[in-house]
UniProtKB/TrEMBL annotation:
Associated pathway: Carbohydrate degradation; glycolysis; D-glyceraldehyde 3-phosphate and glycerone phosphate from D-glucose: step 2/4; Carbohydrate biosynthesis; gluconeogenesis
Similarity comment: family membership: Belongs to the GPI family.
Pfam family, one: PGI
Gene Ontology CC: cytosol
Protein's recorded name: Glucose-6-phosphate isomerase
Subcellular localization, as worded in the UniProt entry: Cytoplasm
Name of the coding gene: pgi
Species of the source: Euzebya pacifica
GO biological process: gluconeogenesis; glucose 6-phosphate metabolic process; glycolytic process
Sample GO molecular function, one term: carbohydrate derivative binding
Keywords: Cytoplasm, Gluconeogenesis, Glycolysis, Isomerase
UniProt cross-references to SUPFAM superfamilies, sorted A to Z: SIS domain
Length: 559
């Protein structure tokens, strides 16, 4: 039975679509898995010594090595056939064309339009969105130049020294991650406040002068309770610091949103609002107005390079045959491990301290997109979907959780991301010697994870027999290695788009909607109810929640 990628029933309809797991292409991959499941990477390299010279790809400035994966060319062929059977090319085309592939919200998914050239045209509901995209980018650039150049003045006439982005989820993780990654390119101080825990706001406001602080309130919906709470408290802080004159607000608050009404209700002048659209998902929004803090930090030219990097990978996804298509191959290798080996997690280990927040950013991108249990037709999926994504920078992780990856009982496929030349403010010799250490560690981990160390090798070192098992490394742990020369804005954009498209392709294979996030709603509703109960009547709770709530009431800060 063939899977029909064009069939798009309404979200609540019963299933008429055959599951991807019922296709002949799925069965072919399963057969290959049965023959390869017990084959060690040592064996694969022994049988195919030149695989490192062959099993790699490039996209933009990224060199992507996939030789240390538990697969053969035949497996890659079968995985690519599976992608085709799942309608990946059609899904990619539908996304670029602005079709409403976010079916449960009846929305287009067009983060790629945010980085499309000015002279292109993408029509959504009869309207070309590209002029809108560039009009906002131009307004952002003009604003950023004024702030960066000291022309934009605060309430008492002084220029802005610090930008505080207030947002959460996609309205925080993308800009916060990118600001940190591009620290070497930044010429403005930016801070990021996301958590409704007042500690976040308080620690970030410490030492700031309201007269030289600009708040960027980032919220697609402008209803997110954490962001509105933090923004209100920031406004109080500003007014208190500037003598209570509300006329100060327009000079110190701008908004990034799709909700002009909400922005106006909050008291921000909509002239100071930078718009985006419902076809930009929160976790895909760093290239939209949501990236304003990044633009303020690195300048409009740097931000254009960032978008250009994303565009490079967009064009690669759109124009490259599946078998050479790097995000498609990475996605299908992920499917190979998640669905055929049953590995539950995926670690992202950047050997770049500047990319420290990249794993957290990818957690939202991947887990909010593909953490789904029903397909497009509303029926339960027939195979596992998104893995748990996690990670921390190397080499730090080596001294913390790598023990489990090397010798634990769960196989964790890992992405090792290396930047050859870090942009640091240290003498060249010092910088090079650190880089040598860093990259040597990345390469060493890839080898250690793949090949391990056998009991015989341990014994040959004269190790006491009682310790041999403890000092044996099973190996056979797969890694993708991604290398780039420098972490420029463009390279960061390329990395982001690479993972975005990996998520898209996996979601297409699983037949799920990667662009909604209904799973975040229940907790929000319950929290709203409980907030009202803290000073009010008890609601209907289980005994555990009721006890905990009472304990909070008894101990909470008194007015
Ligand atoms: O930008 P907003 O509308 O404040 O939403 C913030 C985040 O909250 C979520 O909706 C989840 O609750 C994310 O998808 C989103 O990135």
């Amino acid at each position: 039975m063939r899977y029909n990628p064009h069939h798009r029933p309404p979200p609540t309809a019963g299933s008429t679509m055959p599951a991807i797991t019922d296709t002949t292409e799925w069965a072919a991959v399963a057969r290959l898995h049965a023959t390869l499941a017990d084959t060690h990477l040592r064996q694969l390299f022994a049988d195919d010594p030149d695989r490192g010279g062959r099993l790699h790809g490039t996209v933009g400035d990224l060199y992507v090595d996939v030789a240390k994966h538990r697969l053969t060319d035949e497996v890659l062929d079968a995985l690519v056939a599976l992608a085709a059977a799942a309608g990946v090319p059609e899904k990619v085309a539908a996304m670029f064309a602005g079709e409403p592939i976010n079916t449960t919200e009846d929305r287009a998914v067009l983060h790629t339009a945010l980085r499309a050239p000015r002279d292109t045209s993408i029509v959504v509901d009869g309207h070309d969105v590209i002029p809108d995209v560039h009009a906002v980018l131009d307004r952002m650039a003009a604003f950023a130049e004024r702030v960066r150049g000291g022309e934009w003045r605060g309430h008492d006439g002084r220029p802005i020294e610090t930008v505080v982005n207030i947002g959460i989820g996609g309205s925080d993780l993308g800009p916060a991650m990118a600001y940190r990654a591009l620290a070497a390119h930044a010429t403005m101080d930016c801070r990021f406040v996301s958590n409704v825990d007042a500690a976040d706001l308080s620690r970030n406001l410490a030492g700031l002068d309201p007269a030289t602080t600009l708040f960027v309130i980032a919220s697609k919906t402008f209803t997110t309770i954490e962001t509105i709470t933090n923004a209100s408290s920031a406004r109080d802080w500003l007014l208190e610091g500037l003598g209570g004159d509300r006329g100060a607000i327009p000079k110190h608050f701008v908004a990034l949103s799709t909700n002009a009404e909400g922005v106006a209700d909050f008291g921000i002048d909509t002239d100071n609002m930078f718009e985006f659209w419902d076809w930009v998902g929160g976790r895909y929004s760093v290239g939209s107005a949501i990236g304003l803090s990044v633009m303020l930090a690195i300048g409009p030219d740097g931000f254009r390079d960032f978008l250009g990097g994303m565009r490079t990978v967009d064009e690669h996804l759109r124009d490259t045959p599946l078998r050479e298509n790097v995000p498609v191959l990475l996605a299908m290798i992920g499917i190979w491990y998640r669905n055929f080996f049953g590995f539950p997690t995926h670690a992202v280990l950047p050997y770049s301290h500047d990319l420290a927040r990249f794993p957290a950013y990818l957690q939202q991108l991947d887990m909010e997109s593909n953490g789904k249990r029903v397909g497009l037709d509303g029926q339960p999926v027939t195979t596992d979907t998104g893995p748990i994504v996690w990670g921390e920078p190397g080499t730090n992780g080596q001294h913390a959780f790598y023990q489990l990856i090397h010798q634990g009982t769960t196989t964790v496929p890992c992405d090792l991301i290396g930047i050859v030349t870090p942009d640091v403010d240290l003498p060249a010799d010092t910088a090079r010697s650190h880089a040598d250490q860093l990259i040597a560690n990345l390469l060493a981990q890839g080898e250690a994870l793949a090949f391990g160390k056998t009991a015989e090798e341990v014994r040959a070192e004269g190790v006491d027999e009682a310790l041999v098992a403890h000092k044996t490394f099973p190996g056979n742990i797969p890694t993708t290695t991604i290398l780039a020369d420098r972490l420029t804005p463009s390279v960061l954009g390329q990395l982001i788009a690479l993972y975005e498209h990996r998520v898209l392709v996996q979601g297409a294979v699983w037949g799920i909607n990667s662009f909604d996030q209904w799973g975040v709603e229940l907790g929000k509703v319950l929290a709203k109810r409980i907030v009202a109960e803290i000073d009010g009547a008890d609601g209907d709770h289980d005994s555990s929640t009721a006890m905990l709530l009472q304990r909070y009431r008894d101990a909470r800060l008194q007015p």
